[in-house]
Amino acid sequence: MRRQRLDQILWDDFQKLPLLKKGPFFQQGDGRPYHVLIAQQFERDRLEQLCQLATRIRRIAKSKQGMEFLASLLCHKRAMLDFSQPSSRTFLSFYAACQILGLKAAEVRDPATSSEMKGESREDSVRTFSSYFDMIVMRTPLQGFAEKMAWLLSNTERPIPIINAGSGKDQHPTQALLDIYTLQRSFEKTGGIEGKTVMFVGDLARGRTVRSLSYLLTKYANVTQYFVAPAELQVHQDVLDQLDAARVTYHVCQDFEAVLPEADAIYMTRIQDEWDTEEGQSKRVDISQYYFKAEHLNRIKFNTIIMHPLPRRQEIAVAVDHDPRAMYWRQMRNGMWIRTALIATMFGRDDEIGAYYQLNLK
Amino acid sequence: MRRQRLDQILWDDFQKLPLLKKGPFFQQGDGRPYHVLIAQQFERDRLEQLCQLATRIRRIAKSKQGMEFLASLLCHKRAMLDFSQPSSRTFLSFYAACQILGLKAAEVRDPATSSEMKGESREDSVRTFSSYFDMIVMRTPLQGFAEKMAWLLSNTERPIPIINAGSGKDQHPTQALLDIYTLQRSFEKTGGIEGKTVMFVGDLARGRTVRSLSYLLTKYANVTQYFVAPAELQVHQDVLDQLDAARVTYHVCQDFEAVLPEADAIYMTRIQDEWDTEEGQSKRVDISQYYFKAEHLNRIKFNTIIMHPLPRRQEIAVAVDHDPRAMYWRQMRNGMWIRTALIATMFGRDDEIGAYYQLNLK
Amino acid sequence: MRRQRLDQILWDDFQKLPLLKKGPFFQQGDGRPYHVLIAQQFERDRLEQLCQLATRIRRIAKSKQGMEFLASLLCHKRAMLDFSQPSSRTFLSFYAACQILGLKAAEVRDPATSSEMKGESREDSVRTFSSYFDMIVMRTPLQGFAEKMAWLLSNTERPIPIINAGSGKDQHPTQALLDIYTLQRSFEKTGGIEGKTVMFVGDLARGRTVRSLSYLLTKYANVTQYFVAPAELQVHQDVLDQLDAARVTYHVCQDFEAVLPEADAIYMTRIQDEWDTEEGQSKRVDISQYYFKAEHLNRIKFNTIIMHPLPRRQEIAVAVDHDPRAMYWRQMRNGMWIRTALIATMFGRDDEIGAYYQLNLK
Q1: Which of B232, C58, C189, C207 could form a disulfide with C269 if both were Cys (CB 3.0 to 4.6 A apart)?
Q2: What is the pLDDT, as a whole number, of residue B113?
Q3: Chain C within 8 Å of B310 (Cβ-Cβ)?
Q4: Catalytic one among B5, B44, B89, B283?
Q5: Superfamily the domain B173-272+284-333 falls into
Q6: Residue B15 Cα to chain centre, angstroms
């Protein structure tokens, strides 16, 4: 695969590219991710490789010797976790992934600390981080900012990799990866993701995880997608256009309970009221009939899994937690493993992990 | 010792148990602490073992080789320091203890960061931490919360250990351990803690360290306890009941200067005005006659020690700091050593430390 | 060199000493820095040694093996980064330096966390840090505070070293070191710093980096200094007195564009409006004619370097960044290397680095 280099395209030209054309700019010559910015940059074989690597890391991590091996892989590197938009879950997950790989992390996650950098442009701040660290994990409320910084750094002496850990309403690619990994693990003994039915529920208009996962699922043959939400929160047309283009079967509907028995995976989401454009906008929508309650456990298949990107509010009753089909806690932990796999791959240490696995755990 | 397991008792039943009955639920099968939640879970022989281990760690830590050995013990583990109630002193002490053992730590100690997790229940937040880490050190203003989370996690797939680093007004067990360690070190050459006279001074009504230490001292024969405070801040009856039950000699009094010459250890405390139930409540109490001033150094024995859990305000004059009997700074550093010993013991690395000590330092 | 010890002088006497007399109190017996508190403590040969060591560290750090060697040097030590006055840039630079040397760092940089320590004196807080850590890097808005704490700790059982990472308006010695290192690297092939012309521009009244660098440049023969600023922000007389005493040639002037062609190094600074003594004080000064714009690139020599301590506002146009003479980004990264060299030297590991370098990279 020929690498397309970010420093060989003008920013204005780059911006106009559709997502699928941008992907190759974020890859290394051998197809490994260089930057991780959008879900659209991941091909099916890369997804499979990441899932396999995550599982191997998870198994290696069970022994002290294995953990010591993992921690030796990137002990010579430093990562900056730039969480100017706070998110404890994503932050801690990345932080733990860095710790597993021995990658030394520093952080900005306090709004007060970052406001101190006021008077300096955001671009200069990120360039500062690039001076001291070998990778930036970036979460920001600004749509497209991670892409812009990846382009900008590519034109400096220190074009270090960037991972987008959530930017604005549009992209959260590592969340999509952990969702895929959770589906892959859950359906490992039932033929994999292909042919399964996935049901998205809740705030589908503004949930970036839904957008990304819906797209990645088009890489798997014969997956049927249901979008179940009140009209105000229903998925946007651009997501459906994407499915049409990929000739995927999907259904847009409102009757939560009717669809339940069809699903192999139920992907619950919370109301993203932080994106409300006017005060109380979300509260006017009655979402209560889209809650997964204890009694719904009787309406789903014995091997259906229930997912949620978390945090949850009332979308899933706490009583559901103890059911073996409740997959959201394990899903969260999967995030740590797939992020570990991703970072190891970016730095080209995947082969070494594979070799260790073959030698010690096969 | 038969282990009583937290996942084999209902929460409602567990809550009704007296403290002494709860202790066994926090132990491992071999009597090592699993969770560390209340001072009452520590028996005399465990206290002795922890003190001995702390001293050995302290000596091992004097050489680079020793520090490298210690840092290898838990380099495969990760700890979450969840300080939603900030406390720099306790936080840094635990953080340093983790660093000594190679235990990789992550933290939440910024109220702004934790408020971001709003909308999520505290229980879900702690469960999140348990997904990524191997131990949680938890400081919270909520009485009983650490216990509740220990019970809750025991009923999940990741029942990781919890250390209570201060919860509400009731418990701060590792503070009690460092106090015991300080007494044990100070009285090492004068027959140990047994038979000594300990004088508690200041806000005895609300100081959780006093409650815990007073209890642990009942494990040592013939210790006399004095409680010296103005009436409004005098120790509560439940502490005295505990002493009556253990047939311990104690005195409740108000005359600070009269008791000074009797004490082998003087435990000063500050006014805990953060627990005031109405504005200015503490300010109405005149505590100035309970201050330890430079001239009081002439009224105490040549080998009496002066302790304070810190931070201090005016309870102890700065001029006292240089007197060799001022033990509070060393007491604070003891906290780092005893916490290191405690964590090493929880993870079963105490024997390895003992073996290293015998081989290299005996 | 005979060591003068901080614990052998009274605080009142120490305070009265001129800066140059204070320096020796901050050195070890062999001339290595013990504390790093003021730019005036550095002699020419120490500057040369630090620059050489920084360059060696930088080269060693290019390989994984080299990074592992560096990280083994101080893996048995712990550092406290006490940034009660926030500064992301200086903080991250020191943090990265600690990571490079394997030095385990803890931090206070959140005003909310430190305000929690209220009720405790700042002196007691620093003494707390000294109990758990082996070095304190301290940034504070209080002039002279780092010196005071160095003196105070010298009179305790744990007289650990302190690095001043910026105190009030007066001192920021490690910034001066990185400026010297940047000049030394930039002029390596053109005869070194001696004989060069350095032009300071901007807020010279309140920029502590200018004060320190101006002083250190007196250690290099025949350096000419220009101070170019509006009258209100012009350098203070004490800096000029210092230059007079050292018989250094300097010019105080206002015409930015006229001086540009003379300079070998142009040191731009921003308006330090955080030190305004009244609302809007800085805004009344028109600084726009002291901005370095893209067109100025044509007015400077082909090998002149442009420096800036950062953060910048409008003092330097972003268009200038791509010119090879723009040295400010590399200057910032130099800060990480010189701080690494400094810490290694303080702990006496410079010789070991030199030996590794001779063996592996010469």
Answers
A1: C207
A2: 55
A3: yes
A4: B89
A5: Aspartate/ornithine carbamoyltransferase (3.40.50.1370)
A6: 22
